[in-house]
């Protein structure tokens, strides 16, 4: 990595920045273990309103003991800094783009694309495994879950799926995405996961502690020291449904994350300002609600609710 402004924080620990093409910079913290081992990259703050991962990486850096670590940690604790401080929902304020939809990026792009370019060119080559930390955004209620890249190369997909089973979240979701930070890494041969914890613009100490336990278990699984803990209660849906708004309108959800639903059950309705029904969202099969939008106002194409059959 081309790091600048390197500042030793303690023995084996450093804080620095990755320079961006347009003159900006991206915080990167490293912990070098005393023994050889893999490099685990962890990223947070891709979306500025998703807070648990940001605080969990701050705690991980403070608590990590290089003397007991086998390998190296590379932490990007706040990828979308401007979005975080501006309270922007889901986008990089400078260009209005969702950073998690611009991978793979080319050089010479907008701010979001510069961030993506720096990560894929500087962090991907260093990583043996990558974990991207998200949560429900300020308008989203969610039950904790993890996505793994089901359409990556077989060995990468299986390694990622096995690692996902060691995280302290209730659901393990196969994903076909290719344009996100973690999914682009996976399609370049790096086992990777996206973990979602928290939402609604909130965080709790219990959620941060849960993520730290997940980190320790994952590090144990990767052979970096510590004890791997397989989550035998984690469930993997057989199929997923992601419902979107057919028009702009007022959204009235009728369910909560984690709630079991039956085939044909109404999950929510979309109305126009006059109260005329625009769309009814009903469950296609028996399953479990994983997340839903809480915003009253939604635009055409916005996510409304996701559920899976388990």
Sequence of strands across the biggest β-sheet? 1-2-3-5-4-6-10-8-9
Tally the helices.
6
State the secondary-structure class. Answer: alpha+beta
- Report the uncertain regions: none
Strand content of the residues, in percent? 25-35%
Estimate the mean pLDDT confidence: 97
Task: Tell me the total number of β-strands.
Answer: 18
Q: Short summary of the structure?
A:
This protein is of the alpha+beta class and 310 residues long. It is 21% helix and 34% strand.
Can you put this structure into words, describing what you see?
The chain has 6 helices and 18 strands. The protein has helices at residues 52-63, 81-86, 111-123, 154-164, 181-186, 205-221; strands at residues 4-10, 13-19, 25-32, 35-44, 70-76, 129-134, 140-142, 145-149, 171-175, 192-196, 239-244, 249-253, 260-261, 266-271, 277-282, 287-293, 297-298, 303-309. It has a 9-stranded mixed sheet with strand order 1-2-3-5-4-6-10-8-9. Helix 1 links the parallel strand 4 (35-44) and strand 5 (70-76). Helix 1 crosses helix 6. The protein is globular and about 65 Å long. The relative contact order is 0.13.
